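Q: Joint fold for the lines below.
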Amino acid sequence: MSELKKITDYLWEIPQTGQMLVPGRIYASERLINQIRKDESLTQVANVAHLPGIINYSLAMPDIHWGYGFPIGGVVATDARSGVISPGGVGYDINCGVRLLKTNLSADFIRPKIKGLVTTLFNAVPSGVGSHGAIRKLNRKDIRNILVNGAGWAIENGYGYAQTLNFIEDNGCLKDADPDVISERAYQRGMPQLGTLGSGNHFIEIAEVKNIYDEDTARQLGLEKGNVVIFVHTGSRGLGYQVCDDFIKVTLQATRKYEINVPDRQLACAPLDSQEGKDYLGAMRCAANFAFANRQVISSLIESAMLKILNMNPYDMGLKLIWDIAHNIAKIETHKVDGKPRQVCVHRKGATRAFGPGSQDLPVEYRDIGQPVLIPGDMGTESYLCIGTDKAMLETFGSSCHGAGRVLSRTQAKKRSQGRNLYAELANAGIFVMAEGKSTMAEEMPDAYKNVTEVVNTMHAAGITRKVARFTPMGVVKG
Amino acid sequence: MNQYYSFFDQTSDLGIEVMGPDLESLYRNAALGLTDLITDLKMLKSIKSRIVNVQAEDRELLLREFLAELLYLFHIENFLARDIKIIEISGTNLKAELSGEPIKIGTHRIHREIKSVTYHQLCIKQNEFGFKARFVLDI
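A: Joint structure:
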């Protein structure tokens, strides 16, 4: 790979060389780009530039790190007619995403109760490996319904309020999901897992609104300084993992059949207008809908548990969804390319949609401000809510970063954590954590992540997303 | 490092390296390594046996298919193998007998969830000492 070219203080380019079809572009500050150079993620940005039909650039956000195939933090748009779709560009955890709920509760009111509250949520929402749903046993017909209707299924079955759907990306349901292409194995894996958090970096976080940077936007979103909010981070669980696994096999064959040349097997892909491409898109939408339903059911479990332990009524507690985003997904969207509207397939692998003001895809309540972008940091520092801009629509196919991004591998993190009591360290910082997996605490320790503020500031300075609010953690449930 | 596998640094997930004097041992060690990353291998009992049969186009894909099959058995039946006997192996076909148990979550300590065995940097290399495989697990 050739040397990086500096475009602006916050944008770097990998020139187009060899079989690359477009150059690569990475949003990063000087400090972050030096960190990014240390792993193989820049090679992955260049590899992704080989995908047929790729438009403009192989893009990467400042939280980029070395993934499998695509870098985590990658954004790639391919032409909807002549381009390809790659299951590796979405990942195993299809529609892994984040939702943010606001409450009317003040942080001062919750702080003395935080241990009890975290324990309650830890028990109310099953987490960890093999965790099964806290809801009634679902059959195949239920799952089929969920795959087609997404979060709408949850609402119809009593898990939440109808108006919530307006505040979920795509109203919590991707159209044209095709449950007939979902394998028996995926159905089996999905049946017991709706309403479960999972493991790894998934979490529920109780946080305080610490800083407001844009009063007007915060007011429109209903955010108040000093109040408590709740983040939920999870995805499509075993069902999504199986869909990805099934379709990498399909697309490995398709890659050969359509004579596509990619430098890594994990970049296997199929033309969007081929049967294989259409089948994957239909299957991926099913898994995405499962994830939307999963986050909705979890929110409902959280609300019930909180009402009970706090002995409150829903009106006083005021739990309300601010926004729910997908950060592992591929979507057919219309964007301006060379000044003309064009249908493209935007792969966001560890990246968030960040539509600017005026988009018809936003609820009327948010149409004049732009789309909220939720950027959780590690469990020990802070998280942000930003808002999409017009510039994001021009430069990044309406996309931004999704989190802090890892900087230490899991084995490095484990070494760094030896001899330390991470629970006590976090408790000293006023953060009460409960984790299910034995290795989770060490592998997910705060040191393992980049500085989320630097990531968020980079996108703010680049004009892609604007900072609105900062949150600090009070209690965390880790899977 | 454990007797079956070692890690290589990979930022987001887990990079695994496995060695074996022959292909049978390589596949066996990879499988036991995978189990050990999920729970303590030595705490497992051999009370049930299963036969698995997988096919793939080459020996690398065959390794991935084999590991993916073990993960599937764990995800669906909570079954984890303590002992593995490779009954038959060719470049494209593998038959193995697994002895282990359907574990009780809560009784056995679970280290982490493994979402999948990826194709990223998947390779098997041979030298005068035997075989070495590399693969990345999605965590």
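Q: Anything notable?
A: Chain A touches chain B through 46 residues (CB under 8 Å). Chain A has a mean pLDDT of 96.
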